[in-house]
Structures are given as structure tokens and as C-alpha cells.
Amino acid sequence: MNPFVLKTIAALVPQGARVLDLGCGDGELLAYLRDHKDCTGYGIEIDDAAVHGCVKRAVDVIQLNLDEGLNLFDDNSFDVVLQIDTLQHLRNAEVMLRETVRVGKTGIVAFPNFAHWPNRLSVLLGRMPVTKRLPHQWYDTPNIRVGTYEDFAVLAAQNNLKIEDGFGIQDDAVIRWQPNWRAGTAVFKLTR
Amino acid sequence: MTQLKPIPQSMHFADALLLSSGKSIAGYDLAYETYGTLNADKSNAVLICHALNASHHVAGTYADDEKNVGWWDNMVGPGKPVDTNKFFVIGVNNLGSCFGSTSPAHVDVSTGKPYGSSFPVVTVEDWVNAQERLVTKLGITQLAAVMGGSLGGMQALSWTLQFPDRLRYCVCIASAPNLSAQNIAFNEVARRAITTDPDFYSGDFYAHGVVPERGLRLARMVGHITYLSDDAMDEKFGRERIESLAGQAAYGFDEEFQIESYLKHQGKKFASYFDANTYLLITRALDYFDPAKAFGGDLSAALARAKAKFLVVSFTTDWRFPAERSREIVKALVDNKLCVSYAEISASQGHDAFLLEDERYMNVVRAYFDGVTV
After folding, report:
1. What are the pLDDT digits (tens) for B262-290?
2. What pLDDT score was predicted for residue B284?
3. Does residue B343 register a pLDDT over 90?
4. Most buried residue, A47, A144, B147, B285, by most Cβ within 10 Å?
5. A75 backbone dihedrals φ, ψ, rounded to 5°
6. Average pLDDT over residues A41-68
């Protein structure tokens, strides 16, 4: 994970929080939160190599397919539920968004913003974007849910979720002015 | 890599052990083996619990019997996932099992005859109590970890409930919080096969100089079916016939298909070394294990006592102890905010996968034990 993104996300997580990280990869963020903010909790991951990576870091990981839901977890059982670059891979992205704020008091969601200007330019020129942030060709992308910063705000409103904070990240900087144009990554902090 | 050469040992326990049934057993012995060296702090001990037909011989081979390889030799040893260069590993044969610990085939000193049918029914909890006595006698106050697969996983789980302060980590593989009705049904078929064998003599066959081999063979055959996945069986045997038939039907009822031949072989092999009463005892212990029972079926309430950190592993094609059963354990641990990692390994071999080599499985267990501080 990009160190700036990691620190920016971590800054949104309160000290000592109980955290669930959906699609936690090799556990880098959870290890950081444990080591720097005394956080506890679990990661959820489907990939064998990533699960191994978590165990190597002594990060508690539960191997699950998120598309099967979060039945394992009770309401309000975590202070923070993270979905960092996970939303775009989920079939049931909307259900999982609701699940995120069901099991967590706060949800933090980050995903690639398709409305970032280089993407718009690419589509304007007639081609799907292939960038550092969206490196895959349209026919083999694992990003099955492409949305924009603005789209997410609409989806959150539809689900009666309160956006506590929303901003973009681009080139190791937080973008608060016109993030829908100017940022490759969208970040939202949500509550019910 | 040096090869382990364990020496089987035995420990005598004069004091009576009170059992779940209310009965007790006194003057019993437990067979055990150890691997690696207990450190000065006595903080690096790992107890390995065995399942139905295994024993205290977990790893290595015997100096006088090179072919007798421990049942979890791919998991335990120098440089293996449970590294005996770091850990002092203990394998123990459970009370009632037929590999050296006091069992129904042994002579009851109070009667001068083999226990046979009078051997008391033992439970997972009884085994754990017996194991705790052994561990204590070895001078170990707190185990680094208790680990087991299948029925062994139940013992590891039970350790965290019976002696929450006596272990730091629990590794529970291909296990379940209790048996399903289907599991009990299979056990019962196996037991009936044994108890209806005329050579069983209600469990006192020793005096008659016979062994209920037919029953044991059938018990093993039905058991073996449940250890393999449908796919694994298909891949290994398909509809192939034994060689002498050259693919043709014999229009009879002797063995024709490879799978029949395989099960027959497995049954025969098993009946040559396994004790019929032990089979009954161990399957009953499986049936009875149900830590949630005392809590109205609430496993989360039952596990509230646990303090250990957990690694839970399941295998996708295991239909004897399916992944969902391991997830029940994980959920109960999560409900109690306990530390747990859970790996669900997609393996084709069914329940047997927990004994087999699989890189992902071995990697996770190795990484987990690397993180166990001693």
C-alpha cells in the first residue's frame, strides 16, 4: 500500500479502535494500526497468499468470500470497518456497504475514482482508461464496480448513510477541492 | 535435516482420574513421545492431540523400525511447520487407545483380567484431564500451544475451556464444535458392525483368543468413505475394475471395482492392528463432545472461558467436518473478541487433507508457529 494512503487512512481510525478490514490483503494496514494506534481486530481476505501474508505479520485474518456476506459478525461489533480498494471487486457492493455500517460504528471506504480527469479524457477519446490507478484492460479488470466520487455520495444517501468526511487522494496529497475531477482515489468516512 | 528418532515412553499415574461418567480409573499409564528440547523457561512445549486411529508417535521413525513414520511427520520435525528446533513437542496416546496407554486390552489389576467391556467410557474432557496430568508431571506450567486435527482439534479446543491459563495458542484443524447427526450415524454403523460380530463377545473377546476382525474391517471401510471426498475417490479409482478383470464385469458379488479392493485392503490392514473396544470408545468420545451443551447450545457462551489465541483451519471438500463447522468455532471466538486466524484451504482430498502435504496449508501453520513466542 502507498505509504501516504496508508497513513491518511490510519489517521481516520481512532486510537485503540476495534477494527475489521474487509479485503485486508497481506495485513499491512492492520499491522500498522496495531503497531502505531493500539488497534485490535481482524482482516477478511479470500486470497491464499494474502492470508499467508497476514499470518506472517501476526495479523489475525479470517479467510472468507465477502460476497457471502458478514454473517459472522454482530451489529456494532467494531468501532471501524475498513473497505480499502475492496468495494470495486464486490458483486454485492451495495449490500456490503450496508453491512459495513451494520457491523461497524464507522465505515471507511476508499476506491478508485473513475471520474478523475485522465480517466474522463481517455473515455472522451473513445478508450477505457488504463492508468497506474486502474492498470487493467477493460476485458480483464477485476474492478467490476467502477464508480465515481459523486456516485458514491449518491449511493450513500440512498442508503441513508451519513458522510462524516469525504475527500480525494492524488499524488500523495489530500484533495478536498473538486476531488471528483482531481483525485484518483476517493475516501469516505460513514456512519448510519 | 536430521531425522527424528523418538523413543516411546510411558508415565504411570497411581491417583484415580475421575471421569465424566462419574466412574474413575486408577493406576493407569500413558504412552508418549517428545521431540526437541524443553527450554529453561519451559515455555516452548507444544502438545499434539491425535484423532481416531493415531497415537503418540507423531513424528520421526524408530531406530529399530525405520518404516514406522509418525502420523504427522510432514508437520512436526526439524525445519517443519511445527519446528522441533524451536519447540518441545509432546505426542501422547489417549487413555483407552490401543497404542500403549492403558486400554481395554490391558489387564485390570483389580480383576487380573483384561478390562474388555468393563473399561470405562472416556470423553474428550477426560482425555484432556489426563493430558494435563502428564504435562504437569513433565514440569510444564503453561503450554505454548495445543494442536490437533479432527478429534485432535476437539481436544485442543477443550484445553482452552478446561485449562484456559495453561496454554497460549490453540491450533484446531479440520474439526468441529460437535458431531452432526450424520457424523453420529456413521459412527453408529461402524460400532454396530463391531458389536454384531460374533467374535466380539460383548467386548470380552480377549479371553476367547479371537478378534472381531469382520466388524473392524467394516467399521474401517465405512469410516474411510467419510474421510475422502467424492472427487478424490473418483480421481483415484473412478469406475476402474481390478486388473484381473481387464475392465469387464464378472457378474458376481466378489470385489470387482478398484474402490472395493481399496476399502477391503484398508479394512484388513486396520483390523490387524486396531482394537475393537478402542474403536467403540473413541467414536463415543466423538459423539459426546459438545462444549456448548452446558450453555443451552450457545457455543459463544461456552467459549467465553477461553483465553488462548486461535488458528482454525478447514478444507473445502471435507464433508465429515465441513468448513461451516470450523466457521461456527470462528464465530464463537469472534463473539468473544478472542484472537483468531482462520484459513479455509481449497483442497480436493476431503477430511484426509489435514494429514496431507499442501503448500498453502503448511505455509499458514508454519507462519503461525513462527509467530508463537517462547
Report:
1. 999 999 999 999 999 999 999 999 999 99
2. 98
3. yes
4. B147
5. -55, 140
6. 97
- Out of B330, B346, B368, whose CB is closest to A62? B330
Question: Which residue from A63, A74, A77 is facing B343, i.e. has the nearest CB?
Answer: A63
Q: Please tell me the distance in Å from B363's CA to the nearest CA on chain A.
A: 7
ipTM: 0.94
Whether B364 sits inside 8 A of A18 (CB atoms) is: no
Average pLDDT of every residue of chain B: 97
Q: What is the pLDDT of residues B239-252, one digit of tens each?
A: 999 999 988 999 99
Q: In what helix (H) or strand (E) does residue A187 lie, and over which residues does it extend?
A: strand A185-191
Phi then psi for residue A114, to 5 deg, are: -70, -15
Sign, CA torsion B303/B18/B7/B268: negative
> Is B227's Cβ below 8 Å from some Cβ in A?
no
**pLDDT of amino acid B3:** 82
Distance CA B331, CA B343 (A): 13
